[in-house]
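Can anyone check this?
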Amino acid sequence: MPMATNLDSIKTRRSTPTRKTASHGKTAAPPETTPHREASAPKAPSALLMMLEARAPWEFASTLAAWPLLQTTPRGDGHPVLVLPGLAANDLSTVMLRNFLSSRGYIACPWNYGFNFGPRYGVLAGCVEHVRELSERHGQKVSLVGWSLGGIYAREIAKALPDQVRGVITLGTPFDGPPRATNAWRLYELVSGQKVEDHELREQIRSAPPVPTTSIYSRSDGVVAWQCSINRDRGENIEVLASHTGMGMNPLAFYVIADRLSQELDAWKPFEVTGALRHLIKVRQAESV
């Protein structure tokens, strides 16, 4: 997704160079996938996993119950954190997360663009300007937390503003793998008016931002195939037990987010989990996937 103007501009700004054929000098399209990706291409989550998305209200309730314990997570240094909602969601969906971040000492900011119906004209450019303004106003780098499609925005904002973004955390974000390895691609095409089959765009989205990047994902995600949320070149991957629609209100995800945001600006360290939480949270570094 672009960052100078909107998603439509990304192909002119960061697209993969085209190749010339040896015989006629005509432009050849880049390959859709490499053989190993094609052979192991993930599928959209099963109907059973989709049914398990109904557990999201229980995740909300469990976070309320765990709130006193979550207040023992590391406190922040007061830097701004922009929280971006998922597909067809708005800032109301991130209220609990932003309240939690505020309780830990951060300046938790909504995205202020209403419902996330995809990269409408000017939305991503506006997000970039929002982050730039937050950084200048507070005199600090901004952390970005993006849920699902919001995580795509967060990664691209970081690519556009690497000197003003402190780090990126995504929740169930499909930045890798086939575009139809989700149960939301039809909804995306319906509300955004754009097709998911764009190979150049997929390659751009797949590349990791040049800042510390954490992907929080769940193998029981009923919307996005978990393999599509794995950093493969750099960054870290942290698995939690969560649904897709409940990940932004899940106590395990909140625990991880608090730990990641509390990392010192110039002394970032990979996530480590100890004690009983080792049975609930798993860490997979990019190079081990």
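Reply from J.R.: I decoded it. Confidence is low (pLDDT under 50) at residues 1-39.
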